[in-house]
Amino acid sequence: MIKKTVNNVQEAMKGVHDGMTFMLGGFGLSGIPENAISELVRLNLKDLTCISNNAGVDDFGLGLLLHKKQINKMISSYVGENAEFERQMLSGELDVELTPQGTLAAKCQAAQQGFPAVYTPAGYGTEVAEGKETREFDGKMYVLEEAYKADFAFVKAWKGDEAGNLIFKGTARNFNPLMCGAATVTVVEVEELVKPGELDPNQVHIPGIFVQRIFQGKDYEKRIEQRTVRKKE
Amino acid sequence: MLDKNGIAKRIAKEVKDGFYVNLGIGIPTLVANYVRDDIEVEFQSENGILGMGPFPFEGEEDADLINAGKQTITALPGASFFDSAMSFGMIRGQHVDLTILGAMEVAENGDIANWKIPGKMVKGMGGAMDLVASAENIIVAMMHTNREGESKLLKRCSLPLTGVGCVTKVVTNLAVLEVTDKGFKLLERAPGVSVEEIKNATEGTLLVEGDIPEMQLN
Predict the structure, then answer these.
(1) Which class does domain A9-114+148-216 fall in?
(2) Rounded to two decimals, what is the model's pTM?
(3) Chain A residues in contact with B47 (beta carbon < 8 A)
């Protein structure tokens, strides 16, 4: 077994510096790499480009990095939950590349799987396709979207073993598996780090080959953005 | 004239037995409340679940189980979870039977705008561009006019487009309309609403052929 474990988030961050491009998993606040984000805030890295479906909320998730003006450019599909984000974007302080959600997923997956680019119908005929190559297949138009290039991917999984095999939970899975192996270094934090053999290989979502570093995460807040309930009848 | 729940109620009649359905945020989310309970339907949420159930009971919320609107949800028996690439694979691969979403503007050729007001509101398209580019059956749920009373059914969209020539049907507080080669074809009127009122609220070409029936909501 090739061991991928590191002792803590500080060790997992070895090699990060200003000006890098990061991928961060999560949809809304669900499945975000909370430990990695806290450490990036503490390290106070600047001029970052972040690829993440959303930009957190004002006081949590990527919103913490935005608040400290650590992010130069944000690549996301939806940023509606973050007032500070909208302010920085409209004032021009923050460079924003809005990308259709399925395209964002495909561009991560392409990077993971060695495709330089993929054709997608999403965004054809809109400003998203401006300046991009288009092509017709079977009478329908498609836009050529290039794979992302990133230095680090920060991923959150539910369970993982020392070999870096991962299992995700519920809708916290989202973009996390697609970012594994899509950057030069993939750093995974898990709620439960187990010994090899404790995960059923049939249940593994992401094999350890896509992971460079894995550590036992701690102090998860797992904040709920829109707590919605129904009454018991 | 219908309220938001009325629009959802009318759209629920478009949901057929055996459909996989993607519901957008806002009025479309309400549609799930009105689908007949004698048919089998599965709701897909693009953040990674098929077989989405109702909101959880208080105390049973799970941060790892949310819908595309980031609301806490439940998973029904037979549900499945998947990553975002597979989720949009279902959508792009046309495995989802019906897509219901909101809009700021719809044009008579089926163009839709719902993600950006330049210089004012820029929240992003989320999954809307992927959905409208691939789905074959797209129903828009929206109010017929905006807060200023201006028509949202136009000859051409004025806002940045989400997709081109993709909307098949529009259900508003005033009417049910089908998008055809010649414009918006009026299919039904909301209870108590006249054809004249619908004409006045529609900037795009409105086709009125024969007697227009009133919507049946039950």
Answers:
(1) alpha beta
(2) 0.96
(3) 27-28, 30, 171, 174
